[in-house]
Fold this sequence. Notes:
The structure is a single chain. The chain is of the alpha/beta class. It has a single domain, classed as TIM Barrel, CATH 3.20.20.70. The protein is built from eight helices and ten strands. It has an eight-stranded parallel beta barrel with strand order 1-2-3-4-5-6-7-8. The protein has a two-stranded antiparallel sheet with strand order 9-10. Helix 3 (about 65-75) links the parallel strand 3 (about 55-60) and strand 4 (about 80-85). The N and C termini lie close together (about 5 Å).
Amino acid sequence: xxxxxxxxxxxxxxxxxxxxxxxxxxxxxxxxxxxxxxxxxxxxxxxxxxxxxxxxxxxxxxxxxxxxxxxxxxxxxxxxxxxxxxxxxxxxxxxxxxxxxxxxxxxxxxxxxxxxxxxxxxxxxxxxxxxxxxxxxxxxxxxxxxxxxxxxxxxxxxxxxxxxxxxxxxxxxxxxxxxxxxxxxxxxxxxxxxxxxxxxxxxxxxxxxxxxxxxxx
Length: 217
C-alpha cells in the first residue's frame, strides 16, 4: 500500500499549530470561510513566523471572491487552495492559472458525486470527499457510507488525481477506513477535544495509521 496522505484541518490557534506541526500529517489546513474554525490570515501569518513547520499549508475557502483568496495568499505561503463551496469551474481554472500550487475541490458524498467530479476534474489536482449535512459545508464530525470509497479511489486514480476522505474520521474508526486503502484522509473534529487539537487523539490516530502501514507491507 502506498503511504496514506494525512491532512489535519481546522487549525485555529498557535497552540493547535504547534501540536499538528509535530505530527506525521503531510498537510495542515486553515479555514478562511464562515465556520466555527475560521481564522484570520494575518493571525495565521504571525503563528507561522513563530512555529517553524515543514508541513504543506492548505487554505480552505467556501465560495470566495478572488479578492478574499488574494488577501490570504499575500499574507501566507500556501501550497494548496481547497474550494469547499459551489465554485464555478471558470473561477477555479482562473485561480489555478495564477497560483503556483495545487488546487483541491471538496465535494459532498451523494448519488451524483462522480458526476460532480467529472465536472471539476480538468481544473483540479485532487478531491476531498466529505459528508453531506444540510446547512453545513464541512467539519460536521459525521461520516458518510464508506462503501462508496472504492469508486472514488478508482475514479481519481484513473485521472491521476489525489482523493482524500473526510467527515467523522476518528481513532475509533480510522482502521476501517484504512482497510479501504484511501489515498488520503482529512481529519478535523476527530483530532479535537473541546474544539482544540488534542495531542493525545493525534497520537492515537498516528498509532492506527502506522500500525496499518506495517500490516500491509
